[in-house]
Amino acid sequence: MRILPLNFLPFVHKFRPSEAGKQGANLLAWRWWHGLYGLLVVILFLYLRFPTSQFKAFCTDRVGQYFTGYDVSIESLRYRFPHTLVMDTLHLQAKPDAQVKTIDIPNLWIQPDFKMLGKGFFLSSTAYGGTHQSHLLVDQKQGVFTLSNMIINGLDLAQLPWLSADTGRAITGVFSAQGNFTGKTGGGIVQGSGEGIAQIQDGTFALHFPILSLTNLDLAKVDFLYKLENQKVILTKGKFNGKDLEGSFSGEINGLNGPFSAMPLALTGSLMPLPEFIKKHGPTQPLLLKFQQNHIKIPLRIDGTIGKPSFLLESRTNS
What we know:
Blueprint: H1 10-13, H2 17-20, H3 24-49, H4 52-66, E1 70-80, E2 84-94, E3 102-112, E4 120-127, E5 130-139, E6 144-156, H5 161-167, E7 171-184, E8 193-211, E9 214-229, E10 232-242, E11 245-253, E12 265-273, H6 275-281, H7 286-294, E13 298-304, E14 309-312, E15 316-318
Antiparallel strand pairs: 1-2, 2-3, 3-4, 4-5, 5-6, 6-7, 7-8, 8-9, 9-10, 10-11, 11-12, 12-13, 13-14, 14-15
């Protein structure tokens, strides 16, 4: 393979030391472009040296190290100038012990972090109606990876087929989150730790049995903080509001190493029916009349599992 000379690139040639004179800035720029040119030559060499199938197998194996509960497949790989690797249709099919059955990512872009070459990468993707991004830092010696500055933006819950299948009810809404995560290579997602803030907008949650005459919880906005540790998710400072109710909640989701629908819930909080709702349903709901008379919030507890939650107010009501 013939390596092109540096003066093949006009923008590199004009920064040659012989033309830069005594200007240190130009010399630094020349060195930077020289390094970039070298990187491009290496990429070109790897592209010509290894068949696409072998390179795809290498990438598939790497992804599988971070998703140990899944069989990984990549439809195609392509290079985008100047330094981006694009994975098209990344599919993760669950093994028997995985929490979520499938994960599909139509497009994943990977760019190197030049401040941490070989260790740091910028990730961005499109999936389930939203756009998402993060920074990945890999410590091969310690077998640890960190996802920082994670941003999940506009993920459509209705596009997650396993969500309604595992819970047996319709769940919709637009999910967004920001946070970080640290895990061990080959250790599985639930073995790691992380924290952040999350929000659901325009959400609906179908109830199997009515609560305060409601068969659906229509929630305009849900906000909460989350922390992942010891195979459980801790939720704090949770708030929600909708057309009928508003309230607060906190608690835990345990058993992250088991099936999604079987994860135990332990949440507590309170409900405050809104005036129009009380006016409409108060005559047939003694609890609402009691709330109206005493001006107090209704205590709420959610037990059971994600697949079969139990909502408890002053008297037990299953959903």
